[in-house]
Write a structure and sequence with these properties.
This protein is globular. The chain has 244 residues and is α/β, with parallel strands linked by helices. It is built from 8 helices and 9 strands.
């Protein structure tokens, strides 16, 4: 990454975040060569803690790329905060509306410009009790199918020591051990010319998440469980004759 390409607010974010993370964590970074270069890349980390974005941003920046995260569009409408996020080249995403199509266009444009787009496929921190990956949403697969950009898996273990979502406890102790490993791009070639059907996107997503799960197992040790699925919502029985 040519440092001269960063604007003032990007340097401001680096100056604010990196010194804090340097003191707060004791880092083991591996596989950063898989993020090298200037072409567009889709980065897919597992999601175990609310501290993940800080850790992954530090890792991606140290790999020579500027991380572009997806954020709820409502955050971008907050005075000052939204303005800074735009200046830092973060990407607003509308959910559950026709505006989601425009969000996809913004992601495609970012990749066309050589951006390093960070997508958490699970959409939220994993609900698996031991923080293994769970079944994910299909957004990363849809973007990969639309652009052909490589999908680089990034397995993380350690951010849960900073903030554990199971206990909602923040640990301010310095030098907490954090391991982040980037792998080779996931081989999605078998779906290269496939239409974006639900079946295709789910198969691609499972391939991505299984790769992440196995990478995480190499860091943590042990045998990983199957991808965790959210329990189905119980159906509501309706009185006879009531419309659904």
């Amino acid at each position: 990454m040519a440092r001269r390409r960063l604007g003032f607010w990007q340097w401001f974010a680096v100056g604010l975040v990196k010194p804090v993370m340097t003191v707060w964590t004791r880092r083991t970074w591996r596989g950063q060569e898989h993020l090298a270069g200037d072409g567009g890349v889709i980065i897919v980390p597992n999601h175990i803690s609310h501290a993940d974005p800080l850790v992954s941003a530090h890792f991606v920046y140290d790999s020579g790329r500027w991380p572009q995260f997806l954020g709820k569009a409502s955050v971008f409408r907050v005075p000052v905060v939204g303005w800074i996020l735009h200046r830092c080249r973060q990407i607003p995403v509308e959910r559950g509306s026709v505006e989601a199509v425009r969000s996809l266009d913004a992601l495609v444009a970012a990749l066309d410009q050589g951006g390093a787009v960070v997508i958490y496929p699970e959409g939220t921190t994993t609900r698996q009790p031991e923080l293994w990956p769970m079944k994910a949403k299909t957004g990363a697969a849809r973007l990969a199918l639309a652009t052909g950009a490589p999908v680089v898996p990034v397995a993380m273990w350690g951010p849960e020591r900073i903030f554990d979502p199971r206990t909602s406890r923040l640990n301010p102790r310095p030098r907490l051990p954090v391991t982040v490993v980037a792998g080779e791009p996931v081989d999605l070639s078998r779906w290269a010319d496939a239409p974006p059907t639900r079946e295709t996107l789910e198969e691609m997503t499972d391939a991505i998440m299984l790769r992440l799960r196995d990478m995480l197992a190499e860091i943590r040790g042990g045998t990983p469980p199957p991808l965790w699925e959210r329990p189905a919502r119980p159906s509501v029985e309706r009185p006879e004759g009531e419309a659904a």
